[in-house]
């Protein structure tokens, strides 16, 4: 097992910059997920760690050793791809043991390892089958098994679940987490699915256009996004972004959302935001769960205001309520028993203890 360090990693394909200077320290045994939209450089980063792609600039260290010029087969890493890349003419057992046989590992040692790993993955009954006799989820396990038996320093996963249907994805997500809890191998996992990222990762790395936007635990990214990109990317339904002005009167601050809607900034945020009074391009970021029906008791930091409900989406455990503000759509998560109706005025409650003030010009959360 080993730590992985990326130092100012750059990758240009001819004149196309794919990765534009990434610094990242991944601890031994850590499970790190790279997430971001299509084309942001996730696969390129993973392939550079694997040695499948030359790096244009920077340094990669695995287990403290500089590996820039070490070929892939000598890096002691195992990669699981989206398409699994199993050998169709080999049985599951042969697929899983292939790397070990190449390395001339003794036969009884191979038997022992394949059996143990097949047990962990629940594929002990399938060892004599060929890949075409397996379901998608079973193939995915074999691909993981093939990586695990090699007992590498680092696992690299590139969207390993994206070929599976929604239900199986959720199931395999849990399986991957269980396997990591057992084997504790340092893992770098790529996905464009923020839910997958949040559920699997010790730390999530949000990438955008070849750069890292933010690195943090799932909790940190959700509750303290550093940029408008992270604020909008993490969470579903997405965080509401409402154009606002920041006004001061008698030492208190208010958020002016609309001609007749202004909400008080919680007292504990006043010092932090005071210097932004009167600024243009401010957005109030508030997650849908912090916009609800009104409650019998209102706590300090919570503020009621009236809206005209446009659409409701009853989901059973909650009802999403949509309304417009300054031409933008806003989503609230309400208790179904509040029974808010489309076309009607309704009081909502904004919980501003969880607000984010965002400078749209710089893209920073203030
Ligand atoms: N072999 C290549 N030659 C030229 N450009 C490439 C090559 N591979 C990737 N790119 C470009 O580099 C950028 C990053 O690609 P990359 O495959 O790393 O994205 P990604 O984040 O994995 O996206 P996805 O979620 O779609 O898999 C993209 O703009 C892509 O078009
Ligand atoms: Mg990719």
Can you describe this structure in just a few lines?
The chain has 2 domains: 4-233, P-loop containing nucleotide triphosphate hydrolases (Rossmann fold); 240-365, Beta Barrel (OB fold (Dihydrolipoamide Acetyltransferase, E2P)). It has helices at residues 42-50, 92-102, 107-121, 136-149, 166-183, 194-200, 218-223, 228-233, 270-273; strands spanning 4-13, 16-26, 31-35, 57-62, 65-66, 77-80, 154-158, 186-191, 203-208, 211-216, 240-249, 252-258, 261-264, 282-286, 291-293, 302-308, 311-314, 319-325, 328-334, 345-351, 356-359, 364-365.
Written overview of the protein:
The protein has 366 residues and is α+β, with helices and mostly antiparallel strands. Helices cover 25% and strands 35% of the residues. A 6-stranded mixed β-sheet has the order 6-7-8-3-9-10, sandwiched between helices. The chain has a 6-stranded antiparallel β-sheet with strand order 13-12-11-14-21-22. Strands 2-1-4-5 form a 4-stranded antiparallel β-sheet, with helices on one face. A hairpin with a 4-residue loop joins strand 17 and strand 18. Bound molecules: adenosine-5'-triphosphate and magnesium ion. The site of adenosine-5'-triphosphate (ATP) has 12 residues, from strand 2 and helix 1.
